[in-house]
Amino acid sequence: MKNRIAVVILNWNGSKMLRRFLPTVIACSREADIVVADNHSSDDSLKLLREEFPQVRVLEFNRNLGFAQGYQDALAQVEAEFYVLLNNDVEVTPGWLDPLCCYMDSHPQVAACQPKLRCLWDRPRFEYAGACGGYVDAWGYPYCRGRIMAAVETDRGQYDVVAPVLWATGAALFIRSQVYWEVGGLDGRFFAHQEEIDLCWRIRSRGYGIVCVPQSVVFHLGGGTLPKDSPRKTYLNFRNNLLLLYKNLPEERLLRVMRVRWLLDALASLQFLAKGNVASFVAVWRARRDFYFLKGKFHTDRTENLRKAVVSPVPEQTGISILWQYYVRWRKTYQQLPNQTI
To answer: Which helix (H) or strand (E) element contains residue 275?
Structure first.
C-alpha cells in the first residue's frame, strides 16, 4: 500500500548535504515515501544516491530548472495525498511528521502547514527562512513569528501554539496535493525565492487555511544555494516580491503599494551603494526594470487570482509597515508588534 505522504527533496550539487541530512530524513520519516529530484547536478549527487541510498526514489532532470519549476516537474511525477517540500539542508527530528499530519487530518479546510524551523548552527534560535510561520506587511515585506527583518529570536516557547499564517516556509512545506494542483502549484517563472509566498497567498485567498504547527521541529542550515550578500539573491528577492504583489494584491491596493515600493526600493538601493555594494545597487534597479517588462506576462494570472479569491484582502497581509516598526519604533520581535489587522 502506497504511503499517504511523499517527502520530496530538490537537489542541485548538494551531495555533501545529502550525505549529511538524508540518513536522518529516511530514519525519521518511515511513514513517507522519500523522493530526491536532481536538478542536473554536476557533482557526485547521483552516484551517491545510487550507491548509498538505493531505497530513495530518484528523479533526474536534464537541466537546472530552478527551485520552483524543479519542484513543479518533480511533483507532477509523485502520487501522494500530502507532499512535503523539504530542502536538502534540513535536519528532521523523530516523529516530525506526526503533528503535521494529525493537524491536517483534523482540520480539512487547512491546505498547508509548516513545522517550527530552528537554526542548525545555533539550535536554540529560530531560522531566518520561516521560523514559526510568515506574514506580509502592508508594503509587501515578509516577516515571521520569530524573525523580524534581520532580528532572529531565541525559541523560548513563545510561539508554541498553532497559528494561522499567510505563508509556510518552502524549506519544509507540508501541503495537500489536491490543493497544490488546484491553485496551479509553484510558479516556475520565479526560478527561486518567494515562490512559496506566492503559492500560499493563492491558497489563502481561495479560502483555505495555512498554519504553523510548532509541535513539529526541524533544523535548517540555510544559505546553501546563494549567500546572503549575493547580488543574484538581491535581484531575485526584489523582482519576485514585486511579481507576487502584482499577482495577488486586490485592485484597490495595487497602485498605492507599487508607488510606495518604488520609493522604498530606491532607498534600499542607496543603502547598498552607501555600503560599497555596487552590484546589489544595480541588482535592485535591474529587478525593477525586469518586473516592468515581465508583468504583462502575469496579467492573466492576476485576473484569475482576483476572480477566484473568496478572502480579499487576506487578513495575514497585515496593515503595519515592518520597516517602520523595526527601524523607527525599534521593535525587534513579533510579540512587540502592534495590532496587525489590515
So the answer is: none
Task: Quote the CA–CA distance of 271 and 264 in Å, as a whole number.
Answer: 11
In this predicted model, what pLDDT tens digit does every residue of 229-268 receive, in sequence order?
799 999 999 999 999 999 999 999 999 999 999 999 999 9
| Distance from C-alpha of 33 to C-alpha of 26, rounded to nearest angstrom | 9
CA 235 – CA 230 distance, rounded (Å) = 9
Please name the amino acid found at residue 180.
Y
> What value, to the nearest 5°, has the Cα angle with vertex 323 and ends 256 and 206?
55
Closest CA relative to residue 137, chosen from 318, 313, 324: 318
How far CA 326 is from CA of 25, 137, 335, in Å, comes to 36, 12, 12
pLDDT in tens, 176-224: 999 999 999 999 999 999 999 999 999 999 999 999 999 999 999 986 5
Residue among 116, 117, 36 at smallest CA distance from 75:
36
CA angle (332, 338, 341) in 5-degree steps: 125
Question: d(Cα 153, Cα 170) in Å, to the nearest integer?
Answer: 20
Contact present, 302 and 246 (Cβ < 8 Å) = yes
CA 236 – CA 244 distance, rounded (Å)? 12
SS3 338: coil
Question: Which residues, in sequence order, are CB contacts of 129 under 8 Å at separation 6+?
Answer: 117, 169, 170, 171, 220, 222
The secondary structure of residue 42, as a DSSP letter, is S
**Dihedral sign, Cα of residue 334, residue 230, residue 278, residue 293:** negative
Q: Is pTM, for the whole model, over 0.70?
A: yes
- The residue to which cell 499567510 is assigned: 166
Instruction: Write the DSSP symbol of residue 61.
Output: -
